[in-house]
Specification:
alpha/beta, 6-stranded mixed sheet, two-stranded antiparallel ribbon, 8 strands, elongated
Length: about 375
């Protein structure tokens, strides 16, 4: 009512920019007779979210952008009650008719705290279907790529017979090929260490759960579960807004991880990194992956000092602006440049590239920047 926006509001002034966007978000929910799509003539003020999941997702993103968390929670509850969005969550047939994807999961997670208890199992079923699709697509390649990286990083020069890397041994001894015997005489054996039998590396995934990072949260949760399934990697998964939550104990099921997140809220990267730093016991064998758009609400200089301190101690630090297929994200360019100056370039990463990025980090090689 304060914002106004239509001729009937009596202000005599049209809204523009951010004010108009806020008015539209409010009008979609509280716009009176037109709120659910009343068929009002074009040009008159109307609103509504309709029954489209993508449109709902956009609206949820808008209200997180323009209103504080406490207001967003009220609006989400009102949307479920006033516009019948609970139907989308309550009817399995309707959910099955919509192609489940990462964006739909983000929508369901955004509604998590406002979701009626009777809808949770339906929502979990949808989320699990998407998670299983992602695991099928990503898990095998991730394990193969990282196992190779761990074996290479653990290579030894005097291996036992069953630890010999025959492919690399032959390549290393091709100069000793004897044509008359059609064989290679190996002077030097190249072998694997026992990477698969003990923890060799520690990985900490530090994930920004602000509303704009929904797709990244979904992918990171799946990768966290895959990494946790590898005995040679000790994996920790931490999510944050202005608070920090350690979800490591849920890594056996990425769906549990996702429902442990709370999309929305502010951002305190420094606080999250402080927690992660406190959990590092072997800096030279640790990779910290920060997944964030870098819009810092905490202490910027302290955040950068913390990154510099971790790198100086031997930690491999990776900064991903997004972990999704959505292309270049909106991000804080100043903070990204500051991280790059510290030797930690920040870049967007697709899920398909992530195993290669992690392999390079584990081997302390230059990252394969897109």
């Amino acid at each position: 009512m304060v914002l106004g926006g239509g001729e009937g509001d009596g202000t005599g002034r049209a809204l523009t920019g951010r004010d108009a966007a806020m008015d539209a978000a409010l009008g979609a929910l509280y716009g009176g007779p037109g709120a659910a799509g009343s068929g009002k003539p074009r040009g008159e003020r109307s609103a509504g979210l309709g029954g489209s999941a993508p449109r709902v997702a956009r609206w949820l993103g808008d209200i997180r952008t323009y209103f504080p968390t406490s207001v967003v929670q009220v609006m989400q509850r009102d949307a479920i009650e006033r516009l019948g969005l609970s139907t989308l969550l309550l009817e399995p047939e309707m959910l099955e008719a919509v192609e489940p994807d990462v964006h739909l999961v983000g929508t369901l997670l955004s509604l998590n705290k406002a979701m009626p208890e009777t809808t949770r199992e339906t929502a979990r079923a949808v989320v699990r279907k998407v998670v299983e699709q992602l695991e099928k697509r990503l898990a095998a390649r991730t394990r193969a790529t990282l196992t190779g990286a761990l074996d290479r990083s653990a290579r030894i020069g005097r291996p036992r017979h069953h630890d010999i890397d025959w492919d690399r041994t032959i390549r290393a001894n091709l100069k000793n090929y004897l044509p008359e015997h059609r064989t290679v005489v190996p002077e030097r054996l190249v072998g694997y260490g026992r990477a698969a039998r003990s923890v060799k590396k520690e990985v900490i995934l530090c994930i920004d759960q602000s509303g704009s990072m929904a797709a990244s949260v979904v992918h990171a949760s799946v990768f966290g579960a895959v990494l946790a399934s590898m005995r040679s990697i000790a994996t920790r998964l931490v999510v944050f807004d202005t608070a920090v939550v350690d979800l490591t104990d849920r890594l056996s099921d990425p769906v549990d991880v996702l429902f442990g997140t709370q999309l929305g809220g502010g951002t305190d990267i420094n606080r999250a990194l402080a927690y992660c730093q406190s959990k590092i016991t072997r800096p030279a064998d640790t990779v910290v992956v920060l997944i964030s758009d870098l819009y810092e609400g905490g202490i910027r200089d302290e955040m950068l000092k913390r990154v510099a301190s971790m790198k100086a101690s031997g930690v491999e630090f990776v900064a991903l602006l997004a972990l999704s297929d959505e292309g270049a994200p909106a991000y804080d360019h100043e903070h990204a440049a500051a991280l790059a100056a510290l030797g930690a370039p920040a870049f967007a990463c697709t899920p398909d590239l992530f195993p290669d990025v992690m392999a390079a980090a584990l081997e302390k090689r230059p990252l394969p920047l897109p």
